[in-house]
């Protein structure tokens, strides 16, 4: 197939908006851009497939939050890992220190006691609680602060 | 806050609030990851690899 893939830098958090605004321009103006991919786990970048780089440049003209094309074509094999986004829970291990980023315990820090890969849930024990009660939360509602292996650094 | 969009559990099409996909009649889910916008399915290698043969917005992983 005769297409090329390039990465486009965007403002963090605006990846989806850039993709949508670009797509609207492509459909209106008929540029030779074929697909726009917003990977789940890289922030500040989107991947654009087009006939060539010039078509992407044309499609990006005037689109807010776009910070330009990253030089260098990307082989499709390199982006295949984004086709099946891995849920957050796959990156969390028992003993990790996490911060809850949504739900009733938002902002609280906790230690991971169990990871359920199938249900994509994590059971944590909150640090602030007087009695350690396990709380089960969705994988997307936590942010890892410290991995279990690096914990010894805090000793003393 | 923006309303959570939903994706079809069969084809991955993204809808603003639709509970059933208009193309495959399958239920939609608010729990999805990854976003791809297909503009030319016949010319796109990404679309071909993902097995998508229609234009539109798609989710890559639906729970």
| Number of discrete helical segments of chain A | 3
The helix content of chain A, as a percent range, equals 10-25%
Number of helices of chain B: 1
Number of strands of chain B: 5
Strand content of chain A: 25-35%
- The CATH architecture assignment of the largest domain in chain A turns out to be 2-Layer Sandwich
Oligomer classification? heterodimer
The first-level CATH class name of the largest domain in chain A = Alpha Beta
List the strand order in the largest sheet of chain B.
2-1-3
**What order do the SSEs of chain A take from the amino end to the carboxyl end, as H and E?**
EHEEHEHEEEEE
Terminal Cα separation of chain A, in Å?
60 Å
Radius of gyration of chain A: 20 Å
According to CATH, the fold-level topology of the largest domain in chain A is: Alpha-Beta Plaits
Query: Which strand-content bin applies to the residues of chain B?
Result: 25-35%
Shape descriptor of chain A: elongated
Largest interface, chains and sizes: A-B, 31 and 19 residues
Report the radius of gyration of chain B as a whole number of Å: 11 Å
Broad structural category of chain A: alpha+beta
Order of strands, main sheet of chain A, comes to: 8-7-6-5-9
- Which term fits the overall shape of chain B? globular
Low-pLDDT stretches of chain B are none
